[in-house]
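Schema walkthrough. Field components (list of strings):
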Amino acid sequence: MDIYSYGKGIPFVFQGAYYPKKYSKLKATNLVQLADGIAKADKYSIFYHMFHPIFTSHLVTEDLPNDFAVWIDQSLGLRELAEKVADLPGAEPKTAEDVRKDLFNVISSYKSVREGLREFVFVSCYPIVYDTGKRASTLAEFLDTLATVDPRSVVWHFVSKRILGMSPKNDFSLWLEENFGLKDLSSKLSSIDPQTYTSEEKLREDLIENLEEELL
Amino acid sequence: MIEKYAPIVGEQEIDGIVKIAEKLKGVSVLHVNSTKAGGGVAEILNRMVPLMKDLGINVDWKVIRGDSEFFNVTKAFHNSLQNGAGNLTDEHFKIYDKWQEINSTEVPLDYDVMFIHDPQPAGLVKYRKNNTWIWRCHIDISNPYPPTWKFLSQYVSQYKSMIISVPSFGRDDMEIPQFIIPPSIDPLSVKNSQIHDVTVRRVLKKYDIKEDKPIITQVSRFDRAKDPIGVIKAFKLTRNHVDSQLVYVGSPASDDPEGEIVYNEVVKEVDGEKDIHLLMLPPGSDLEINAFQRASSLVMQKSIKEGFGLTVSEALWKERPVIGGNTGGIPLQVIHGVTGYLVDSVEGASHYMTFLLKNKEYGSLLGSRGKEHVRQNFLITRELRDYLLTILYSMGKSL
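Field assembly_structure (string):
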């Protein structure tokens, strides 16, 4: 593959997003209420609680990479269930709705009447998208830019848009396939599950490693 | 000015803030609160306002006026909102309204964005023009004394949006958007920047505190919510195991008439114990606070009710482990066993005091993790960015 070719001439436009947090009015003190809240919460809330720990600024411990798992462990003391929830899949083609179903099924099938030490408060958010000003027209430029662009951009294109149902798969794979016909590489990136990451830089590293293996 | 933060938070973070601020060029913003000094709100505004100006935003800050009767009422508001109990009457609400009316003639209310902090000036919204009003609530309003909240919420509901510090402070009876924005500390302020060891030693000597005996510090107003009596009791228990000193650093605030009463209660509890140092420092004693925190083996914030508890982030930023009350915003900062310990009792506080005094290397590990946690989440640049995004949203603008 000529990494200096322009393919079909479609540039990749790197955007990023902020996610201001909003109070959702949904709360839970036990598993039944948690399942009920998961059923009612908007997709942004599911996205936030399952995927915000991908940012290094996460407020959870490293071994339980989503808010539901942390609360189930620390507030309800149900470690076994917490581990199951921590390991729920979030790779393509899942969306917030798929993740919601998985969460609901796992949590509602677990029987416990324990009351939490603290409430779980559902937080919603909304993405404010911005243009980073970075563009890539060739694979070489793409590799260089991916390595240095604002990490918020990596998460926006690789995780957020797909989970929020704005894109059928991650934008990087879509572009590699559409502009260069790189179906295998596209699939390889698609198989990376962002749900268990607790650092956007680690995600970036893994993406680059996969690209480097195929392109250099 | 904003560029000075780049070595701490990274250039991309700064670039992002500058880009958001560009969308607010020409917009005028007025911050309004009730005190120029004392407490976390005034402290952060002292740093935030110049930063917003530096970003090209037309921003100002005004402090409302009031007599002792008004501040007694607003202190009662504060307590009843946070504690769920009170004894406020129509007479108190009339005093509150009277001073809102007086201030409405003295505070310019025609800025594009009116950024009102806490309950004291919240009623100014009654005199709003056709502009954007945002209420920034720094305290816990999740379980208020119903009559106080009923009175206050008639004003809050007139705002375009409101900001709370912690998700659990949210209100189910409010229809306006409730943004969740934790407060922050300024790493470049006198209180938080790096200082030389000789300055630490000088300050300790000035206040007759021994250098060679472990120091435990709590920096808080003399306010029952901060549980100063509990801190003294916990320290006395710890003294049974480890010879150490307690420094309780408070400062008077013009909007807190109860401070002196609580101070006298604490003096009684100390009962002449020579290793307990009660200091009432004037507002602006930031260098001294910086020195006390850095001189400490561990820092306490044993609140039983707390808005956020910024002294926790201050201590973590200096790589000191923190023992904090399991309330308000403290659990966001103290991740139990990772950056410090959360406690619900005097005995719990004493247990972890003793543990950290006996295991200093482990305390250092918690402290270093704490610094990174604060860098990622509780520095002024993050709060500034969140404020700008809230203004954008509330004005219906996009990036």
